[in-house]
Design brief:
- The protein is mainly alpha-helical and about 80 residues long.
- The chain has one domain.
- It is about 80% helix and about 0% strand.
- It has two helices and no strands.
- The two termini are about 35 Å apart.
Protein backbone atom coordinates (compact mmCIF):
# COMPACT_ATOMS: atom_id res chain seq x y z
CA UNK A 1 0.00 0.00 0.00
CA UNK A 2 2.84 2.43 0.87
CA UNK A 3 4.51 1.80 -2.49
CA UNK A 4 1.19 2.41 -4.26
CA UNK A 5 0.78 5.74 -2.47
CA UNK A 6 4.34 6.87 -3.27
CA UNK A 7 3.96 5.84 -6.89
CA UNK A 8 0.63 7.67 -7.06
CA UNK A 9 2.17 10.85 -5.60
CA UNK A 10 5.03 10.84 -8.10
CA UNK A 11 2.56 10.23 -10.92
CA UNK A 12 0.46 13.18 -9.69
CA UNK A 13 3.46 15.54 -9.70
CA UNK A 14 4.50 14.43 -13.17
CA UNK A 15 0.96 14.65 -14.46
CA UNK A 16 0.48 18.18 -13.05
CA UNK A 17 3.60 19.36 -14.86
CA UNK A 18 2.50 17.86 -18.17
CA UNK A 19 -1.09 19.12 -17.88
CA UNK A 20 0.04 22.63 -16.92
CA UNK A 21 2.63 22.82 -19.71
CA UNK A 22 0.31 21.57 -22.45
CA UNK A 23 -2.58 23.79 -21.34
CA UNK A 24 -0.33 26.84 -21.06
CA UNK A 25 1.12 26.16 -24.51
CA UNK A 26 -2.38 25.95 -25.98
CA UNK A 27 -3.98 28.88 -24.14
CA UNK A 28 -1.17 31.15 -22.98
CA UNK A 29 -3.08 31.61 -19.74
CA UNK A 30 -1.45 30.80 -16.40
CA UNK A 31 -4.86 30.82 -14.67
CA UNK A 32 -6.42 28.33 -17.09
CA UNK A 33 -3.27 26.17 -17.11
CA UNK A 34 -3.22 26.08 -13.29
CA UNK A 35 -6.91 25.17 -13.12
CA UNK A 36 -6.63 22.39 -15.68
CA UNK A 37 -3.25 21.40 -14.26
CA UNK A 38 -4.84 20.81 -10.85
CA UNK A 39 -8.28 19.40 -11.66
CA UNK A 40 -7.40 16.93 -14.40
CA UNK A 41 -4.42 15.30 -12.63
CA UNK A 42 -6.37 14.96 -9.38
CA UNK A 43 -9.08 12.99 -11.17
CA UNK A 44 -6.51 10.92 -13.05
CA UNK A 45 -4.44 10.28 -9.91
CA UNK A 46 -7.44 8.88 -8.08
CA UNK A 47 -8.27 6.69 -11.07
CA UNK A 48 -4.62 5.57 -11.34
CA UNK A 49 -4.49 4.50 -7.68
CA UNK A 50 -7.51 2.22 -8.11
CA UNK A 51 -6.18 0.99 -11.45
CA UNK A 52 -2.93 -0.10 -9.75
CA UNK A 53 -4.86 -1.83 -6.95
CA UNK A 54 -7.00 -3.70 -9.49
CA UNK A 55 -3.93 -4.88 -11.40
CA UNK A 56 -2.35 -6.04 -8.14
CA UNK A 57 -5.40 -8.25 -7.61
CA UNK A 58 -5.16 -9.59 -11.16
CA UNK A 59 -1.47 -10.38 -10.64
CA UNK A 60 -2.27 -12.05 -7.32
CA UNK A 61 -5.00 -14.18 -8.85
CA UNK A 62 -2.67 -15.29 -11.65
CA UNK A 63 -0.05 -16.36 -9.11
CA UNK A 64 -2.57 -18.38 -7.12
CA UNK A 65 -3.82 -20.08 -10.30
CA UNK A 66 -0.26 -21.01 -11.22
CA UNK A 67 0.42 -22.38 -7.74
CA UNK A 68 -2.77 -24.44 -7.84
CA UNK A 69 -1.24 -26.56 -10.60
CA UNK A 70 1.61 -27.73 -8.35
CA UNK A 71 1.33 -31.18 -6.87
CA UNK A 72 3.22 -32.88 -4.08
CA UNK A 73 7.02 -32.71 -4.05
CA UNK A 74 7.31 -30.01 -6.73
CA UNK A 75 5.87 -32.15 -9.53
CA UNK A 76 3.51 -30.22 -11.80
CA UNK A 77 0.36 -31.47 -13.44
CA UNK A 78 0.32 -31.51 -17.23
CA UNK A 79 -1.42 -28.38 -18.49
Amino acid sequence: MKRDLLKTASFAALHFGVAFTVTYALTGSVAVATSVGLIEPIANTIAFFFHERAWRRVDGNAASRNNARAMCCGVFKAG
